[in-house]
Amino acid sequence: MRIVIGSDHAGFHLKATIIDHVTSLGHEVYDAGSYDANPVDFPDIAKMVTSSIVEGKADRGLMVCGTGVGASIAANKVKGIRAAVCHDVHSAHQSVEHDDVNVMCIGAQIVGAWLARDLVAAYLAAEFSTDEDFRRRVRKLAEMDEQR
Questions:
Q1: Helix residue spans in 1-148 (DSSP H)
Q2: How far apart are CA 27 and CA 56, in angstroms?
Q3: Could you say which DSSP state residue 82 is in?
Q4: Where do the coiled-coil regions begin and end (predicted)?
Q5: How far apart are CA 33 and CA 8, in angstroms?
Q6: 60-65 and 2-7: which strand pairing?
Q7: Residue 107 bridge partners (DSSP)
Q8: Mean pLDDT score of the chain, rounded to an integer?
Q9: How many Cβ atoms are within 10 Å of 114's Cβ, its own excluded?
Q10: How big, in percent rounded to 5, are the helix, strand and coil portions of the chain?
Q11: Per-residue model confidence as pLDDT tens digits over 23-79
């Protein structure tokens, strides 16, 4: 898969670990910034990450900020994006399987490198369920996008 990864300054150091891990899993990685630990606004990074997905340049995205919450809020402002904060392995895979999440957000101040690797592996290995209940619900999310 083609994975776009972005972080603000709070997630900058963990992002490097995640990039190495995603690459080791055989995925193509695009780094959308930030490129150093200087303060940056997470909505700007979210815009770059989500643009890559919406434009078809990336299949899924990862965002790392302090808690994951700000990144998730910003990403979900973009039509066609379904972002979720995931700090446990179950949520990391189930968010894709049940909700077709295309951006997973992680809090660098919440999880360490070892858990981040497990979260990313679960997220990237997951596939959207063929169960009609889940498909119907995601179609309803798309309809909500159209009403904006």
A1: 12-24, 42-54, 69-75, 89-99, 113-125, 132-146
A2: 16
A3: -
A4: none
A5: 7
A6: parallel
A7: 65
A8: 97
A9: 9
A10: 50, 15, 35
A11: 999 999 999 999 999 999 999 999 999 999 999 999 999 999 999 999 999 999 999
State phi, psi for 125 to the nearest 5 degrees.
-80, -20
- Whether 98 sits among the annotated catalytic residues: the reply is yes
**Residue 12, Cβ neighbours under 10 Å: how many?**
19
- In this prediction, residue 147 carries a pLDDT of 87
Peptide bond into 52 cis (omega under 30): no
How many angstroms separate the CA atoms of 43 and 11, rounded? 13
* Edge-first strand listing for the sheet containing 83-85: 28-31, 2-7, 60-65, 103-107, 83-85
Amino acid letter at 107?
Answer: G
In the residue annotation, 13 being an active-site residue is answered as: no
Contact 106, 12 (CB under 8 A): no
Catalytic residue, candidates 65, 86, 93, 105: 65
Beta bridge partners of 5: 31, 62
Helices (H) and strands (E) in the chain, counts: 6, 5
Please state, as a whole number, how many other Cβ atoms lie within 10 Å of the Cβ of residue 38.
8
Identify whether the C-beta of residue 53 lies closer than 8 Å to the C-beta of residue 102.
yes
Please pick, among 27, 86, 87, 98, the residue that the annotation labels catalytic: 98
